[in-house]
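Example 3.2
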Amino acid sequence: MAKLSQEELLGQFEEMTLLELSEFVKKFEEKFDVEAAAPVAVAAAAQGGGAAAAEAEPEKDEFDVILTGPGEKKIQVIKVVRELTSLGLKEAKELVDNPPKPVLEKVNKEAADKAKESLEAAGAGVEVK
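Structure, written as tokens:
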């Protein structure tokens, strides 16, 4: 078996769901008799708990793309909204006319970034949550 580089390993981990990654970590800990959570627990004790709790949360894998304003090129923004969604002209116009409204919900980071880039290029105000 060929040895994988760190980049190849990271690529494999990126494709895993959080549940799959969690199961992998458990098996890794069992096989090598280590505890991956130990540094987090030490950091929590050192920082008083509150700040460390936020750090211990898993990385977010679902994002919402929120239209905060149509900008000056409303027609261009409507066209981009229609390209990103399956909305008809009327629905897309209503969405653009009544910000803040979600354009995409629960999409991966890459799709959210592409949507944000497209909407901003059309002149819209966009927020990714």
